[in-house]
Amino acid sequence: IMTKTGGMATLQGAISSGDLILNGSGGTLNLGTALAHSIANAVLTNGTLNLGSSTINVSGNLSGTGTLIGSTGAINLAGDWTQSGSFTANTSTVNYNGTYANEAVQGGITYYNLQISNGSTKLLQTGDATVSNALTLNSGILRIGDHNLILSSTATGAIAGGPFSASTMVQTDGMGYVQKAGGTGGSGLNIVYPVGLGGYYD
After folding, report:
1. How far apart are CA 2 and CA 77, in angstroms?
2. Is the pLDDT of residue 177 over 80?
């Protein structure tokens, strides 16, 4: 539990613990440089969690109303993202790697790198999601429902991963759509769009 109410504390070594709880308004916990942390749940009640250049493996959920700053770090999240405070991606990576159906993927925010891993279906919730660099489908289905998935990079590498199939794709089963930005003359649009519906990949 961190109750720091001002300034920044930076971790110098990796942690492996139960829940990480931030409840000190005004304080920041920086996860340090090139460390690998493992926790059960991340509860951002107040304050700010800055990933630094480290990786945090969360076997449970990410929740709370505090602030999350991605910097150049990474989150491997096996549970639901219900954190409603601000998220600044910077050049970070968020990897949803849960194994149960309908893991909650947070919408209403912009990711830099968004990854879907470890099979099963991940469900986009609470709003549209924007990916400013790359969406990587390693394995599993990203189900967008009535929300939009906006790929704002004009690069051909804005969608990566695969091989794409009925179990590794974006599922459009509602009013939501996949939108990809193009460059001058439509450059960057002539790529594979791994989209399917109802257990079928096209």
Report:
1. 21
2. yes
Strands 195-197 and 200-201: antiparallel
Strand order of the β-sheet with 62-64 is: 20-22, 42-44, 62-64
pLDDT band at 200 (very low <50, low <70, confident <90, very high): confident
Q: Which residues touch 24 (CB under 8 Å, ≥6 apart)?
A: 2, 3, 4, 5, 46, 47
Tokens encoding 124: 């986009």
Question: Contact at 8 Å (CB) between 140 and 117?
Answer: yes
Residue 19, CA atoms < 13 Å, CB-side half-sphere: 13
The H or E element containing residue 153 is none
**H or E stretch including 22?**
strand 20-22
Q: Which two tokens stand for residue 118?
A: 């470890």
How confident is the model at residue 1, as a pLDDT?
Answer: 66
- Considering only 19-23, 24-28, 177-181, which range has the smallest mean pLDDT? 24-28
